[in-house]
Design goal:
By secondary structure, this protein is α/β, with parallel strands linked by helices. Helices cover 49% and strands 11% of the residues. The protein has 16 helices and ten strands. Strand 3 (110-115), helix 5 and strand 4 (154-160) form a beta-alpha-beta unit. It is globular, with a radius of gyration of 25 Å.
């Protein structure tokens, strides 16, 4: 079986992309499967038919689909509800939708990208005079995904920002039954993204210092940063320098002393409770003394790093993890008499970690108030179940409240050590495990 050449000539392959997490792993496996299918080594039933990618705008979902097609050497077809609606009334929309899949079949093997697939929405939410129209759109898409001939040779990638808005029928087995979230790139991912966009000069640049200043940035924002830095260098008629990148970053504003001390107390709380409960090997703790006033995401005030923070899947281990997650807020309440918003507001925050862990206890693993299996252990499933189940919400709140009280008690016992660590953080900003060990008397 011969394959058509990809219709994408220039651009990154999967190996050039960074910070995509599990999506990149899935993509590389698909490349191998498509190669084996074309060689007749496996049947189409052995190949994943599609995937749903979620993540914030600019995280690289569309770029991923193009890189996947380029790496596989297959045709890419672009589709979206907006493109199909632009063709006219409902009949024209459905015709355009079917045309997208027909193009994929004509050029099989191919990748069909349905961008912003969450705009199709859930049939259960439809009401009013547009309800029938919207149902027809969903039904039409379901027919295309099923296909009379099994959609052989066509892999569908659905990109979305809001997975909870998607119709459940789209995700049943055989359709788009795999869901992968593309996270915001970490430090290593940000360096890799900048390195790709600045490949011609990356060896002469200090991308580590730039990546450290871009926590919470998407791939699209990093690409824009690289473009602006190159423009700055061109205007100066010289080669690109690290200073050009740094000059394009927002000017950081120093944190007020009172906020800096609160952050130091907060992070010290995580340290003393984590060490007391022996949740894992402690590595370091830091506070960040400046923030980006133009940032659109909640920015970290610091962090305590423990390796293998959750090695045991017992109830006691889960509860210890929750106590450590809530220890920063517990320390704030003890020292200042109140808590700040620094423990929540974003994915990966203390409250997010504690809530998901409590949900695993109560809804997935049968370690809480009952044995009933309410949800799978994935974060997405757990949070959807939480929002739909008032009784589960009460059970989770009880777990969190109990562990917050335990964290406060542990912080009270370690109050002198807490103050010592916080004072050292205010002086040094970063403390190694060895430096913290000298501040604690067991």
């Amino acid at each position: 079986m011969t394959a058509p050449k990809s219709n994408l000539v220039q651009g990154p392959t999967l190996d050039d992309l960074h910070g995509l997490g599990a999506a990149a792993d899935w993509g590389r496996e698909l490349v191998v499967d498509l190669k084996d299918w074309r060689a007749g080594k496996i049947g189409w039933s052995e190949v994943d038919r599609g995937i749903l990618l979620s993540g914030p705008p600019g995280s690289g979902k569309t770029t991923f689909a193009a890189a996947l097609a380029r790496t596989s050497g297959v045709h890419l077809v672009l589709g979206s509800l907006a493109r199909w609606q632009a063709m006219g009334h409902l009949g024209d929309l459905l015709k355009a939708m079917r045309g997208t899949f027909a193009e994929g079949m004509r050029n099989a093997p191919s990748i069909v990208l349905i961008d912003e697939i969450d705009s199709v929405e859930d049939r259960q939410s439809f009401s009013g005079h547009n309800a029938q129209y919207s149902r027809e759109v969903v039904n039409g898409l379901l027919e295309c995904l099923d296909g009379s001939d099994g959609r052989e040779g066509v892999v569908v990638v659905g990109a979305m920002n809001f997975p909870d808005m998607l119709d459940a029928a789209l995700t049943r087995p055989g359709r788009l039954d795999r869901h992968v979230n593309i996270p915001l790139p970490d430090m290593t991912g940000r360096q890799g993204i900048l390195g790709w966009h600045l490949a011609e000069a990356s060896s002469a640049l200090d991308l580590t210092s730039v990546a450290a200043r871009t926590d919470g940035w998407t791939g699209a924002a990093l690409e824009q940063l690289a473009r602006r830095a190159r423009r700055r260098a061109r205007r100066a008629r010289r080669d690109l320098e690290t200073a050009d990148l740094l000059a394009e970053l927002p000017e950081l504003v120093p944190l007020p002393k009172a906020m800096l001390r609160r952050n130091a107390i907060h992070e010290a709380g995580h340290v003393v409770v984590g060490l007391t409960l022996s949740v894992g090997e402690f590595r370091s703790v830091e506070i960040i003394d400046a923030f980006d006033p133009t940032g659109e995401v909640t920015q970290r005030g610091g962090g305590a790093c423990f390796d293998d923070i959750f090695p045991e899947r017992t109830k006691a281990g889960f509860l210890d993890r929750i106590a450590v997650a809530l220890a920063g807020l517990a320390a704030e309440e003890i020292v200042f008499g109140s808590r700040s918003a620094g423990g929540g507001g974003r994915k990966g925050s203390d409250l997010h970690i504690a809530t998901v862990t409590a949900l695993q206890i109560e809804a997935a693993y049968g370690l809480g108030a009952g044995f009933t299996f309410l949800s799978g252990a994935s974060e997405e499933e757990l949070l959807v179940t939480l929002h739909m189940n008032g009784g589960l919400q009460a059970r989770v709140e009880n777990v969190l409240a109990a562990e917050f009280r335990r964290a406060k008690a542990l912080v009270e016992e370690m109050r002198p050590e807490l103050e010592n660590i916080a004072a050292a953080l205010l002086r040094e900003r970063h403390l190694s495990a060895e430096a913290v060990e000298e501040l604690i008397s067991w």
